[in-house]
Design a protein that fits this description.
about 350 residues; alpha/beta; five-stranded mixed β-sheet; two-stranded antiparallel ribbon; 7 strands; globular
Length: about 350
């Protein structure tokens, strides 16, 4: 990848001289988080939706009038799917776009990032599809990004028959495993979702070797510095990388040291995410307290996205909450209609 002309030489030298990991060191098994819902996928999709469509669904992307803008409909999506059973997924979004083709102006794009194989997945996509069509009385395009480990699983439609009549809904599918053969090319691609896909594939490859994951994660963070993306995109992508490529505590601390050694101007406050800062500060006072701080910060983020800025009384409750209270409030986030329902009984 060619280095941008305005990148300082000292940053380039630092990245080139970043410490390597001793290959003779014993491997450590690492596993990605299983807490899939509302992952950082949603943030990066919302801040780079045209790039998302161009990378995973290029044919559909060419049919959208991007100059007319697009609108995310988070509240409307939650209203439609609130009563449906939630499977294992990473994120879902609903976007209103303008079509370049046909007589219909608005098209509603429902995107779901699916974390693992699920026997009822196609049926759920079908249910969401007809609920959205009924809600908006307009065309709905259903798209799925499959982040599972089974190369044979490719649900693309749901069909049922009744009295000799067939009913079918077909949806677009993008399989992350399909990019395995071009992993090196992904790391040279300037589309941010090429980097997200590379992170997913490298996470799978390094599942049983923490040292290799450390090196892969550091390499991808270097690429964040060199692509010239806007600050918000960099922060979103860093959150996805950090969420996917979890490391043992010692290697995670070493990674932060490596990042801190990079040029101050280029760092763009990567490590100021509330979750990580809470955990880092907690490590100085005790690992358990740090985990609680990180859990509270993440919950505040989810609550703010769902209900808007939090009143001070609820922020205070989060700051003082125990691990058990935070877990209880987190379980209520999706179904509660108000903040009072989330914090009821605290």
């Amino acid at each position: 990848m060619q280095q941008p002309d305005d990148e300082p030489d000292d940053l380039h030298d630092l990245l080139a001289d970043a410490p390597s990991v001793d290959p003779s060191a014993p491997p450590n098994t690492v596993e990605a988080s299983s807490d899939d819902y509302d992952s950082p996928w949603k943030d990066v999709i919302q801040h780079a939706f045209p790039e998302f469509m161009a990378f995973y669904f290029p044919d559909a992307a060419r049919r959208i009038d991007w100059a007319a803008g697009h609108e995310f409909l988070e509240t409307e999506l939650r209203q439609v799917v609130r009563d449906a059973e939630l499977g294992r997924r990473h994120a879902d979004v609903l976007v209103r776009v303008t079509s370049l083709m046909g007589q219909t102006e608005h098209v509603y794009v429902h995107v779901e990032v699916q974390g693992g194989r699920e026997s009822d997945f196609a049926r759920r996509m079908f249910v969401y599809h007809y609920r959205l069509f009924d809600r908006f009385d307009a065309p709905v395009a259903s798209l799925a990004v499959l982040a599972d480990d089974d190369p044979q699983w490719r649900p693309e439609r749901f069909t049922f028959e009744a009295l000799g009549l067939a009913h079918t809904v077909q949806f677009g599918v993008a399989k992350l495993l399909d990019h395995e053969h071009r992993l090196e090319q992904l790391q040279e691609d300037d589309n941010p979702f090429a980097l997200v896909t590379a992170a997913h594939l490298l996470t799978r490859r390094t599942r049983h070797d923490a040292w290799q994951r450390y090196e892969a994660k550091l390499r991808l963070i270097r690429l964040l510095y060199r692509q010239g993306w806007e600050r918000q995109q960099v922060l979103d992508l860093f959150a996805v990388l950090d969420w996917m490529m979890s490391l043992p505590t010692a290697l995670q601390q070493r990674l932060w040291q490596d990042v801190d050694e990079m040029d101050q101007e280029k760092r763009m406050a990567y490590v100021t995410t509330w979750e990580q800062r809470g955990i880092e500060k907690g490590l100085e006072k005790g690992l358990e307290q740090g985990q609680i701080l990180g859990q509270a910060a993440l919950l505040e983020r989810l609550l703010t996205r769902r209900f808007g800025p939090l009143p001070e009384e609820f922020r205070a409750s989060l700051a003082a909450g125990s691990r058990e209270q935070l877990q209880l409030w987190g379980d209520r986030v999706l179904d509660a209609a108000s903040l009072s329902e989330v914090f009821g009984g605290h």
